[in-house]
Structure formats: C-alpha cells, structure tokens
Amino acid sequence: MAVWAIGDLQGCYSAFRRLLDEIAFDPAYDKLWLVGDLVNRGEDSLATLEYIYRIRNSVEVVLGNHDISLIAAYYGVRKSNRFIDPILESPHAETYIHWLRHQRFLHIDYQLGYCMAHAGISPEFDLGMAIRYARQIEERLQADEDEVKVWLEKMFHHTCDRFDRSASIDDIERYILSTFTQMRFCYRDHRLDFDQKGSPTDKKLEEKGMKPWFDVVGRKSVDLKIVFGHWSALGYYQDEHVLALDTGCVWNGRLTAAKLDSHTPELVSVACPQKELEDPTF
To answer: Do strands 3-6 and 31-34 pair parallel, antiparallel, or not at all (unpaired)?
Structure first.
C-alpha cells in the first residue's frame, strides 16, 4: 500500500487522472490524501467530484475554501458559476453535497507523522486545539440542512482575522473556518491577512511585517508535519514542519503528488496546460 498526498485539484480532471496513472494508484490498495479545493476553475469539476466519490473509501479529504463555497452555493448562500453549475445541476448533487458536508477540516495520521489541512493550522493553535476546533466546525457543517444554511450565512457575512476567546461564538467559528481554508500570511501579532496571495519572497510584504503562517515567531508547536495547499504562489515547499503541495495546476502550472509513507516524500508531478483567466464568483 502507498499513501500519496495531492495538491489542489481545482476541477482539473484530466491532469488528476494522468497523475494517478503516473503514480500507479490502485484504489484497492493505495490511499490518497487530497488537500481540498477539489473543484472550481478547472475544465471538469463534475467529473473530478464524481471520480473522487466513486473511490471515496480510498480517499482522505479535507475541505478547502472552494469546496465550502460549492456547498454554500447549493444552499443558495453563494452564487454559482459556470465551473460548478454542472455539479449543482447533476441528478446526484444532493449525494455529492451530503458527502462533502461530512468531510473534515483536519486529517491526522500519527503513525505516518503527518496531518493535513487545506490552508494549514493557525499559529495560535497547538495540535489539541486544532483537533478540537476542527471538530467544532465539522459538527456545524454536518447538522440539519436548515441549520447548515443559517451557519454558512453567518460564516460568509465577514471574516475574522484574530483569535479571541472572548469573542462571540460566530466570530470564533469564522476565525476557525478562515484559518483552515483561507490562511496564507500573518502579521507579527498573528493577525491574519486574507488579501495577499503572492510569494513569501515579496519584499514589500516582508516590509509590512507579513510572513507565512508557518514561519511567524511564536507559532504554537504542532508535533506532526502539516500537509497543506491553497497557496499556488508559494508552490512546492518543504521544511521539517510543513509540506506545501499547491503547485498551480489550474494556472498553467503542475499537479503534484507526494508519497508520504517513505523516509522522505517522493514527488511526482504532471503538467497542467490549462490557464483559467476568468476569476469565478468565489
């Protein structure tokens, strides 16, 4: 059995299947870790989701911001777009959305020594806190449909960039959701910035006191290596604490897989010639 983690798919079905061929993935024996953003912007989000659902017993998924927005669009909380319309119009839409709602924000494998979250783990959270807070919003997303719609409306009302235990439950959960699905840069005080999407080597951002969430001073220790995506401008990056796998598939980049059950991650990638110029609704 092999365990492979794969970066943001963004609905790039053809690149996804080519990468699975390259790594000789066999769903009867192997396991995939998908870092989220399964859909949107790519050439076939429906086929991507259909295939993942078919092999769901061999896949570990964490939810990304685009996956949450798809769920919100299903409930009328967000607008749809041409990339996800086929999913919402599918006769199996209810099945796919129900399955997505029951996926996690944090996946952990103590034996392998890895955990996975779409954007990462807040510098304010140690592993125990991350587990507890991930479960808190997972339960919100898995509630009755009417409750889910109300909760999503609250979550999309605005973002929350600072962790404050004395804040309202809604603001605390906005922060939790934002860190797991949208986080990139932090200021020195660990306040999050959701606007900047550029490279960590950008001197202007550094001059503003902004650093990657995993590189800020005072970040709480997480005793597992964190696999994440969400940050195509960062691209592939690895150090002793993190493994970043969003290599910009939909932006004329590559789709990358890392073999986790080896002494050092073995990398395999395929080109993704698609370049989506239109920015979707979300």
So the answer is: parallel
> What pTM was computed for the model?
0.94
The most distant pair of C-alpha atoms in the chain lies apart, rounded to whole Å, by: 51
Amino acid occupying residue 118: H
Strand 114-116 to strand 107-109: parallel, antiparallel, or no bridges (unpaired)? antiparallel
> Which token pair is 272?
């993704």
Superfamily of domain 3-271: Metallo-dependent phosphatases (3.60.21.10)
pLDDT tens sequence for the chain (282 residues): 899 999 999 999 999 999 999 999 999 999 999 999 999 988 899 999 999 999 999 999 999 999 999 999 999 999 999 999 999 999 999 999 999 999 999 999 999 999 999 999 999 999 999 999 999 999 999 999 999 999 999 999 888 899 999 999 999 999 999 999 999 999 999 999 988 888 887 777 777 888 999 999 999 999 999 999 999 999 999 999 999 999 999 888 899 999 999 888 889 999 987 655 454 545
| Distance separating alpha carbons of residues 256 and 249, to the nearest angstrom | 8
Q: What stretches of 158-241 adopt beta strand conformation (E)?
A: 185-186, 192-193, 211-212, 225-228, 237-238
Run of H or E including 270: strand 266-271
End-to-end CA, the chain: 37
At residue 175, what are phi and psi to the nearest 5 degrees? Answer: -65, -45
Residue 22's H or E segment, with its range, is helix 13-22
What is the chain's alpha carbon radius of gyration, rounded to the nearest angstrom? 18
CA dist 192 → 106, 138, 213, 227 (Å): 19, 22, 8, 19
> Whole-angstrom Cα distance, residue 202 to residue 177?
26
* Strands (DSSP E) found in 112-191: 114-116, 185-186
Whole-number Å distance between alpha carbons of 282 and 266: 33
